[in-house]
TrEMBL record:
Keyword terms: Lipoprotein, Signal
Signal peptide bounds: 1-25
Domain of life: Bacteria
Keyword Oxidoreductase: no
InterPro entries attached to this UniProt entry: SusD-like_2, TPR-like_helical_dom_sf
Stated name of the protein: SusD/RagB family nutrient-binding outer membrane lipoprotein
Length: 496
């Protein structure tokens, strides 16, 4: 369904919801013309975009590819995709805690509402007119799993089993239990689809159940790898199960999972929002040096040339005074226009990303495919995604000593990690999670760090309001974290 149609439906839903509370005085205080239950197709679209239909001018927040997921600026700084050009505090790790309201209150709540409407006796029969019950549940469960995956990897233990149930004091579930349930949800949801009608409002796959199944299996493969250091046997079994599932996984750029943004204030690329009349970010020297040293053609997409028609990276993590001195003498490259256009796609899972996961699985002897072939196919998929592929350049590139798939297994994993970092750009959130798991590439913290540890953050501290609004459960969760509720503490799967 086109987003323009969805926007009209949002407006209608907003009027219905507003009208529900504005009837004439009477015994029932009900408007007979108002919707008695939320409309699931509107909830689905709102969950994907993270834009409440009743909030005019509200830019993309949580959503499936909003500024708290794929387009989050702080993780882009943590993994040194970008450097700050004016106010460098986030590059110096000054922000230690983050709020999670927009995850729980908008997208996750919308998805939970779809699930509740399709499982509760009093509303289940009404949902049949919109789509198959099984298909509505399967889609909502997959998206909910993806968002909770982001949430738990940002903070660690979070409200999960007791969340989204109108419970103002939810207990925190351990990350290990969350992962177990997320993998179960993805396994079950793939097999839950039937041949019935798909739900409207699906701006990801437009009602194509086969693509939903590939998305779920790909998520399960990526989640499984996240467990490789803490539960290797479980990680291997889950990866193989998803990899071998007959429904398939994201294997080509035609399968890429993305939100297609519009040239519209509310529905535009969230990265574009960061440049509204501002000039706060440049491509970091770290990323720029890597691209130039490898003669990587993606540099033409990832960065713009400066006024001298050169690619120049912005030094990472300088103090404000040092930054002012440097920028007074130098012009640097901004993130590429192709990355920050209003309609640039928000990629969630790509073929390159999944191919690199398969290459890692092959190095670990989980699957029998040739790791080198998978690795080179991943690089090619990334180049083709960004429309820079050239066979001659590719052959030279893959023969570079820092790219060629050779050496020990650890050296191969290092090269996979560097190519993953490049292929994920500008998805700093996923790159940050994978850097924490693998340590690749070898990123060094700014020497001007403002946080307690002086190191690149390993997680976000819990929202500051939790210590007062949910004190008992917050303290219990914090006590389970080695080192406490700190920026430098590690989540369950992030071990040395």
């Amino acid at each position: 369904m086109a987003l323009s149609i969805v926007k009209k439906r949002w407006a209608a839903v907003a009027l219905l919801l507003l009208g529900a509370g504005c009837s004439d005085f009477g015994d029932t205080n009900e408007n007979p013309n108002a919707a008695r239950v939320p409309v699931p197709f509107a909830l689905l679209t709102e969950a994907i975009t993270g834009v409440p239909a009743t909030q005019a001018g509200y830019t993309l927040r949580g959503g499936i590819a909003g500024i708290q997921t794929v387009g989050a600026p702080e993780p882009m700084l943590y993994v040194q995709y970008w450097s700050e050009s004016q106010y460098p505090e986030d590059s110096q790790y000054a922000t230690t805690f983050a709020l999670w309201d927009n995850y729980y209150a908008v997208s996750l709540q919308d998805l939970q509402t779809i699930i509740d409407l399709n499982t509760k006796d009093e509303t289940r029969e009404q949902m049949v007119k919109f789509a198959s019950i099984n298909n509505q549940l399967a889609v909502a469960r997959i998206l909910r799993a993806y968002l909770f995956w982001v949430v738990t990897d940002r903070w660690g233990d979070v409200p999960y089993f007791e969340a989204l149930k109108q419970n103002t004091l939810p207990a925190y579930t351990s990350q290990q239990e969350i992962y177990t349930d997320l993998l179960k949800e993805l396994r079950e949801s793939v097999d839950q689809f039937d041949n019935g009608r798909m739900l409207d409002g699906d701006i990801l796959f437009h009602g194509d159940a086969s693509r939903w199944k590939k998305f779920a299996n790909s998520l399960r493969m990526l989640m499984a790898l996240r467990l490789s250091n803490v539960e290797p046997a479980t990680a291997r079994d889950e990866f193989i199960s998803a990899y071998e599932h007959p429904a398939g996984h994201v294997a080509s750029n035609d399968d890429n999972v993305f939100v297609g943004f519009l040239d519209d204030d509310k529905l535009r690329n969230p990265v574009n929002v960061l440049f509204d009349g501002r000039d706060d970010y440049g491509v970091s020297e770290t990323l720029m040096n890597t691209l130039t040293n490898l003669n990587d053609p993606r540099i033409e997409v990832f960065a713009d040339r400066n006024q001298d028609e050169e690619f120049v990276g912005l030094p990472y993590g300088l103090t404000r005074s040092l930054l002012i001195d440097w920028t007074n003498e130098n012009d640097y490259s901004r993130p590429g226009i192709a990355i920050r256009e209003t309609t640039t796609r928000g990629y969630i899972v790509t073929a390159s990303q999944v191919q690199l996961a398969k290459a890692e699985a092959a190095v670990r002897n989980w699957i029998g495919d040739d790791a080198a072939d998978l690795y080179y196919d991943a690089i090619r998929a990334s180049w083709e995604q960004h429309e820079v592929f050239d066979q001659d350049i590719f052959e030279v590139y893959t023969g570079h000593a820092d790219v060629e798939f050779s050496g020990t297994d650890e050296e191969k994993l290092s090269k996979i990690g560097t190519q993953r970092w490049l292929a994920l750009y500008p998805n700093g959130t996923e790159a940050w999670f994978e850097w924490r798991r693998t340590g690749y590439p070898d990123l060094q913290p700014t020497p001007y760090a403002l946080n307690e540890s002086g190191e690149i953050p390993r997680r976000y501290a819990y929202p500051n309001v939790e210590a007062t609004l949910n004190k008992i459960n917050y303290e219990a969760a914090s006590a389970r974290i080695s080192g406490g509720d700190k920026h430098h503490s590690r989540v369950w799967w992030d071990i040395d």
